[in-house]
């Protein structure tokens, strides 16, 4: 340790630590610009100059190492004059107007100008005349705003080991930073970690996705923000890359109660947000999750999670789907006595009766449910609850998680003819091995994933000709592209942009009349406006029509609960407050917000568990930490052609092998591909480790 | 060459002793006792050999051109003394041909050739060895070392002279306006008394009435900008401002305010940059402004370039009394800025004139005149030969 004196204040510091950091840590502000806590000092901007007693000249404090007995002055007249001169020089090559800069109000240079208040009009001002480079994904370069602090170069080189950015000189001797030969970032082996944008003090290198409308960690790591359950995706991908599947699964299980199921069928909102999409193709997050979970030994979570002692409170969960089971699981962990009542013969809800087994094998669902029952959740099947209020005689709280098990028949001519089936009923019967009434020529009406589940199930049950028709244009269809493509491979015809005019037939379905949609938009009241193409009437013959146009909760007002749009159970606030109209009764999952996804149901179940726990006198904290703390190595190094690495695809059986049976056909990533795929991650979360520089504003706030 | 061989046979301690005993001095800006500088570095420190970063002229590269082995062996002897394998030879970026020519022999000595200036941020703790000192080291171990300073006077070949030689003894300073050496300008009176040790880059240039100091300073500043890495604010931006001011002055757009700013920026530059480029670059404009104020005053106040170099102050006009209206000049003017027709006095439009002087060469009547002074009264419209009157 060393004792140094800064502006008369004695400070005990680590010997050899740079004097600038010593001062900042001691609450003494020294202006600085090129210095960044996480980067090697450069000593170039001359803002942090100080006078050491016994020395002739001022020197930059970022390069000055603390030595016992040092006496430092930070604010002499000479220092102030030289700082101002340095800033005047810097600003000579910087645009004068701050108000048009996207970094306005958030720019370290701007704050420095306010602090120092430089003279104006003495220097020859110049515009550097660089074209704004918007040809790269994720990052935008406006070198006109660059003040050559070199933080980007050091971040890229010293901090990340990627070494893409360099100081360069234009023919007219104007200095700038960029890739060698001004190559595109993807051609210069950039890893798109965005550390350069993070450390840039001005509006020079900018994160294109940065927005004031979201929290920083949400736009910086959009996959995590995009996951309804906010699973820590970059962390588990990193573990997966390292072959640490136990750790990866532990991270996943901290947020997702049914990780295997989700590894198979999650609609992966995360992948839609993945920033790698802008570079070439999104990360295969779902498949990596599946891979990690399938290679997990349970070391970090099995029998290790939270289990609070019994509270003596009893909760009944109605519906054993993903929302209900998840809520039950976490409520049990909070110490409550939880019973799940399920109307159908098996638990699992849509996982057991909606999603076909060729996508999600039933034993996977049973394996996941076993985790819940092992935890002490009791499940009663074949028990239908019509009057939830009655349960309150026996239970302290009730959660309605009944999903949407009533298929919707559109109000149109012929909708009740024999041969007309409804999505969820059809899938349930198929799943249970019951007679479905399916013919040979089938038309499925609807364009979501359920429509394709119906069509592909029909194919596997032996239908000969199958059509899927929907109102939306191909690019607006809500089903995954993968589903549509695989269905087409299996010989299913897809007809986007169709209106359903009528189901034809007198005593049995003979087909459907369609017209082509010319345009399909919504007005300001979210009402559909459909324009049909004149003279486009056409007919497709069929003996079976399946409505796959939505599902609704199987409940009536007779239950005593207030119902809302689409027969959903009304709750106070869909995420924050899941209380229904009846005291003590809560609701979660599809039955409150309509048909969404399994991962949404899981998150909704977690939220409900937390809220019910609070209601029952608990602290509502259902969080768990399974995974060891991860060392996130900021030094990611160079990888040739990193930006061009292709998304690794899972092994999928060809159509002729899969289309006539209900066996699982997607076998996930192979060992080699899993590691390679995980290595494609941009590791956006590393950026959040970078320190935020302290500015004068921080110190003046502290002073107040 | 067998300097390296001799050194190897001696071993590290004896190398030190020999350097110390000979009192070898480090050449260039890091002047001082070479043995002590070696000692100050830790064992295993890399050797970075080259010119001083600020040396834009490179007169001392002649040592490398004449006898590369000598310099390279000297570098290796230093490496031997430090017990290091890492030895780098820095060559100016513009010397790519020299670098290519030296590559095979450098490889033989396991010396890495680097282009550009030494990055002082990344080489902290390294041993900096001046090229001239590398040559001295080699001489020392072949017992051919003689104390002295290398100089190249007015573009003549490099030679070694005794340290106490005065600049005035090297060359005649008669008719000199200024002497440019060791990154400084000196007045002839100063130079008379100055020893060659001031010539840290070996270059001695005597500037006469034919050279404009503002123009020379501007060119020098451009050279510094060319080698500057651009990291230090005062070097990068300071040079831009200083160069801009000199250019404006040579273009007849100078203001006396510039001189104060030149001094302010220049003074700060001396200690506000990490390497010698930015530190030394300040002296050309500082010396010029302080020691030769009349050069600036005549440019700025009297609208004259005393040397007649700055084109903006030079006028070319056609003497209306001598012009015969032959049209020869009109035909050669590349800018088409001469107006005239047969038997009429021709006129030069000064706005477009680049002062190339082609018209002067072709005029058989010697009617086209170049002057650094004021223009006489000239016709303002086409006038018949012989009809022009002064009033």
Tags for this model:
heterodimer; A: alpha/beta; Alpha-Beta Plaits; Fumarate Reductase Iron-sulfur Protein, Chain B, domain 2; 5-stranded mixed beta sheet; B: 391 residues; de novo design (two linked rop proteins); 4 domains; 4-stranded parallel beta sheet; 17 helices; elongated
Question: Can you describe this structure?
Answer:
The complex is a heterodimer of chains A (about 700) and B (about 400). Chain A has about 700 residues and is of the alpha/beta class. Chain A folds into five domains: about 1-90, Ubiquitin-like (UB roll), CATH 3.10.20.740; about 100-115 and about 125-210, Alpha-Beta Plaits (2-Layer Sandwich), CATH 3.30.70; about 220-300 and about 640-690, Fumarate Reductase Iron-sulfur Protein, Chain B, domain 2, CATH 1.10.1060; about 315-405 and about 555-615, FAD/NAD(P)-binding domain; about 410-550, 3-Layer(bba) Sandwich (FAD/NAD(P)-binding domain), CATH 3.50.50. Helices cover about 30% and strands about 15% of the residues of chain A. Chain A has 25 helices and 25 strands. In chain A, α10 packs across α13. The longest helix of chain A has 18 residues, at about 600-615. The termini of chain B are far apart. The longest helix of chain B is centred in the middle third of the chain and has 18 residues, at about 235-250. In chain B, about 45% of the residues are buried. In chain B, the strands form six sheets. In chain B, strands 8-7-11-9-10 form a five-stranded mixed sheet. In chain B, β1 (about 25) and β2 form a beta hairpin. Chain B is α/β, with parallel strands linked by helices. Chain B folds into four domains: about 5-140, Rossmann fold (3-Layer(aba) Sandwich); about 150-205; about 215-300, NADH-ubiquinone oxidoreductase 51kDa subunit, iron-sulphur binding domain (de novo design (two linked rop proteins), Up-down Bundle); about 315-385, Alpha-Beta Plaits (2-Layer Sandwich). Chain B is built from 17 helices and 17 strands. Classes of the chains: A alpha/beta (about 700), B alpha/beta (about 400). The interface of A and B includes residues 40, 42, 58, 93 and 123 of A.
């Amino acid at each position: 340790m060393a004792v140094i004196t800064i502006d008369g204040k004695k400070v005990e510091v680590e010997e050899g630590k740079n004097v600038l950091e010593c001062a900042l840590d001691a609450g003494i502000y020294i202006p600085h610009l090129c210095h960044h806590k996480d980067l090697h000092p450069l000593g170039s901007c001359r803002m942090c100059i100080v006078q050491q007693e016994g020395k002739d000249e001022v020197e930059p404090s970022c390069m000055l190492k603390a030595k016992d007995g040092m006496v430092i002055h930070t604010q002499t007249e000479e220092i102030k004059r030289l700082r101002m001169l340095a800033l005047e020089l810097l600003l000579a090559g910087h645009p004068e107007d701050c108000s048009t800069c996207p970094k306005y109000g958030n720019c370290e240079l701007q704050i420095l100008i306010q602090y120092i208040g430089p003279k104006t009009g003495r220097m020859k001002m110049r515009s550097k005349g660089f074209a704004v480079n918007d040809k790269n994904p994720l990052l935008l370069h406006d070198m006109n705003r660059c003040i050559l602090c070199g933080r980007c170069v050091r971040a890229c080189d010293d901090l990340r080991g990627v070494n893409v950015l360099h100081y360069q000189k234009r023919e007219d001797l104007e200095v700038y930073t960029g890739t060698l030969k001004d190559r595109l970032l993807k051609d210069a082996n950039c890893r798109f970690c965005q550390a350069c944008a993070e450390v840039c003090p001005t509006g020079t290198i900018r994160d294109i996705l940065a927005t004031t409308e979201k929290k920083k960690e949400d736009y910086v790591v959009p996959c995590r923000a995009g996951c309804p359950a906010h699973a820590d995706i970059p962390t588990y991908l990193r573990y997966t890359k390292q072959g640490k599947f136990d750790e990866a699964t532990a991270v996943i299980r901290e947020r997702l109660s049914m990780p295997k199921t989700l590894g198979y069928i999650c609609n992966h909102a995360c992948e839609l947000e993945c920033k790698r999409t802008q570079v070439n193709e999104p990360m295969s997050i779902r498949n990596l999750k599946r891979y990690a979970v399938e290679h997990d030994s349970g070391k970090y979570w099995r029998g290790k999670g939270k289990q609070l002692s019994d509270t003596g409170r009893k909760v009944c969960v109605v519906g054993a789907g993903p929302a209900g089971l998840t809520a039950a699981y976490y409520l049990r962990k909070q110490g409550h006595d939880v019973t799940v009542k399920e109307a159908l013969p098996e638990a699992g809800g849509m996982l057991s009766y909606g999603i076909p087994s060729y996508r999600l094998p039933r034993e996977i669902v049973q394996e996941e449910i076993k985790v819940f029952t092992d935890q002490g959740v009791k499940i009663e099947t074949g028990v239908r609850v019509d009057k939830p209020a009655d349960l309150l005689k026996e239970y302290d709280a009730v959660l309605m998680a009944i999903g949407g098990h009533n298929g919707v028949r559109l109000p149109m001519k012929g909708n009740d003819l024999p041969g007309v089936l409804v999505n969820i009923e059809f899938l349930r019967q198929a799943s249970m091995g019951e007679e479905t009434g399916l013919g040979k020529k089938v038309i499925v009406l609807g364009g979501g994933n359920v429509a394709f589940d119906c069509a592909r199930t029909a194919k596997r049950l032996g239908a000969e000709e199958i059509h899927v028709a929907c109102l939306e244009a191909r690019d607006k269809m809500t089903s995954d592209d993968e589903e549509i493509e695989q269905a087409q491979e299996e010989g299913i015809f897809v007809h986007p942009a169709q209106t359903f005019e009528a189901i034809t037939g007198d005593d049995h379905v003979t087909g459907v009349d369609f017209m082509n949609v010319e345009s399909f938009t919504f007005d300001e009241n979210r009402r559909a406006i459909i324009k049909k193409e004149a003279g486009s009437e056409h007919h497709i013959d069929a003996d079976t029509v399946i409505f796959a146009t939505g599902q609704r909760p199987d409940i009536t007002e007779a239950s005593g609960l207030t119902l809302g749009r689409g027969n959903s159970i009304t709750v106070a606030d869909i995420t924050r407050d899941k209380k229904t109209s009846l005291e003590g009764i809560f609701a979660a999952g599809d039955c409150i917000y309509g048909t969404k996804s399994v991962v949404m149901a899981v998150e909704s179940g977690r939220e409900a568990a937390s809220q019910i726990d609070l209601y029952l006198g608990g602290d509502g904290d259902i969080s768990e930490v399974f995974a060891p703390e991860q060392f996130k190595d900021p030094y990611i190094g160079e990888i040739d052609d990193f930006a061009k690495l292709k998304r690794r695809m899972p092994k999928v059986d060809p159509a002729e092998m899969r289309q006539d049976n209900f066996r699982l056909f997607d076998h996930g990533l192979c060992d080699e591909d899993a590691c390679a795929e995980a290595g494609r991650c941009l590791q956006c979360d590393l950026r959040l480790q970078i320190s935020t520089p302290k500015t004068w504003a921080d110190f003046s706030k502290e002073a107040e | 060459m067998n300097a390296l061989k001799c050194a190897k046979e001696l071993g590290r301690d004896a190398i030190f002793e020999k350097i110390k005993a000979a009192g070898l001095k480090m050449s260039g800006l890091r002047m001082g006792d070479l043995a002590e500088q070696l000692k100050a570095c830790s064992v295993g420190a890399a050797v970075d050999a080259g010119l001083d970063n600020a040396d834009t002229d490179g007169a001392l590269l002649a040592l490398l051109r004449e006898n590369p082995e000598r310099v390279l062996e000297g570098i290796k002897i230093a490496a031997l003394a430090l017990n290091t394998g890492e030895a780098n030879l820095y060559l100016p970026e513009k010397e790519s041909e020299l670098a290519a020519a030296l590559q095979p022999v450098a490889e033989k000595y396991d010396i890495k050739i680097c282009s550009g200036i030494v990055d002082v941020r990344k080489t902290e703790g390294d041993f900096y060895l001046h090229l001239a000192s590398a040559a001295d080291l080699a001489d020392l171990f072949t017992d051919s070392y003689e104390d002295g300073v290398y100089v190249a006077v007015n573009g003549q070949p490099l030679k070694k002279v005794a340290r106490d030689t005065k600049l005035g003894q090297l060359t005649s300073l008669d008719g000199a306006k200024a002497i440019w050496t060791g990154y400084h300008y000196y007045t002839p009176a100063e130079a008379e008394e100055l020893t060659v040790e001031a010539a840290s880059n070996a270059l001695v240039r005597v500037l006469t009435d034919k050279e404009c100091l503002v123009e020379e300073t501007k060119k020098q500043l451009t050279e510094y900008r060319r080698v500057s890495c651009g990291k230090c604010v005062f070097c990068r931006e300071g040079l831009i401002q200083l160069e801009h001011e000199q250019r404006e002055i040579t273009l007849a757009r100078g203001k006396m305010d510039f001189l104060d700013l030149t001094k302010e920026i220049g003074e700060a530059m001396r200690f506000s940059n990490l390497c010698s480029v930015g530190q030394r670059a300040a002296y050309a404009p500082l010396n010029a402004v302080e020691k030769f104020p009349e050069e600036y005053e005549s440019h700025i106040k009297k609208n004259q370039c005393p040397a007649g170099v700055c084109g903006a102050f030079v006028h070319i006009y056609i003497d209306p009394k001598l012009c015969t209206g032959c049209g020869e000049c009109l035909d050669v003017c590349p800018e088409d800025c001469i107006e005239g027709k047969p038997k009429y006095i021709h006129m030069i439009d000064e706005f477009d004139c680049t002062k190339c002087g082609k018209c002067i060469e072709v005029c058989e009547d010697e009617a086209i005149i170049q002057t650094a002074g004021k223009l006489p009264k000239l016709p303002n419209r086409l006038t018949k030969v012989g009809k022009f009157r002064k009033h």
